Amino acid sequence: MRVIGLTGNIGSGKSTVSRRLKKLGAAALDTDRIARDVVAPGTPGLDLIVKTFGNHVLTPEGELDRAKMGDMVFKDPGARAKLEAIVHPLIFREVVKKIDEYKSGHNTAPAMVVEVPLLIESGMHRLMDEIWLVAVNPEIQLNRIMSRDKLSPEQAFQRMNSQMPQEKKIEFATKIIENNGTPEETEARVDELWQEIARDHAK
C-alpha cells in the first residue's frame, strides 16, 4: 500500500481533498485525532505542556484550551517552537505505529492518505511514499481563513505567516493540487491523481 502525505497551508483546502480521496476509496489516517489524543488529560504530553506554559492553558475541566494555546503560539514564534518540540515527536511516534499497522494488515485500498498540516516542518514527510500539496493563491487563502474562522485580516495574516511558505513546500511535493477554482475543478484534479494510483495498484 502506498502512503500519501497530504499537506498544505491553512485555508488551502486540505480537508476538501481528503474527503474526496476517502470517497474514492483511500484509507485515511486521522492525525487530528492523534494530535488530540497525545495531549489528552492524564497524558505525558499534556503534563509537559502545563509544565512549560503553566496551568492557564487548561480549561476548568483540565483539558488543553486549544483556543488559548493557539492564540499564544500564533503570536509568539518561541512559544510555537516549544509546543512543537513537545507534540511533534509524540504525533510522529503514533503515525509510524499506525502506518505499520496499515501496511501489515489486510487492506485492499490502493493507498493510505495521511493529512498533516505541518508534514514537512515536523519531518513526517520522510515517512511518506508521496507528498501531495494542496496549493492556493494568497488572496483566496486570506478570504477563506477570515470567513471560516471569523478573523480580522491582521489575525488571518498572522496565521498565514506563521507557516512555512507555500513556495518552499512545493520543493518537497510529488504532486500539486491547485485549489483556486470551483470544488468541481479541484475534485476533477483529485480524481485524475487517484486514477493513476488505482492503475498502478492494479498492475
Structural class: alpha/beta
CATH superfamily heading: P-loop containing nucleotide triphosphate hydrolases
The CATH topology annotation reads as Rossmann fold
Shape: globular
Number of helices: 9
The gyration radius over C-alpha positions equals 18 Å
Biggest β-sheet description: 5 strands, parallel
Mean pLDDT: 92
Number of strands: 5
Runs in which pLDDT lies below 50 for 5 or more consecutive residues are none
**Helical residue percent band:** 55-70%
> What is the helix/strand order?
EHEHHHHEEHHHEH
Spatial order of the strands forming the largest sheet = 2-3-1-4-5
| Integer count of domains | 1
CATH architecture: 3-Layer(aba) Sandwich
Secondary-structure blueprint of this entry?
Layout: E1 2-7, H1 14-24, E2 27-29, H2 31-37, H3 44-53, H4 66-75, H5 77-104, E3 111-115, E4 130-135, H6 138-149, H7 153-161, H8 166-170, E5 175-178, H9 183-202
Parallel strand pairs: 1-3, 1-4, 2-3, 4-5
Helix pairs in contact: 1-9, 3-5, 4-5, 6-7
Main location: cytoplasm
Catalytic activity: 3'-dephospho-CoA + ATP = ADP + CoA + H(+)
Pfam families: CoaE
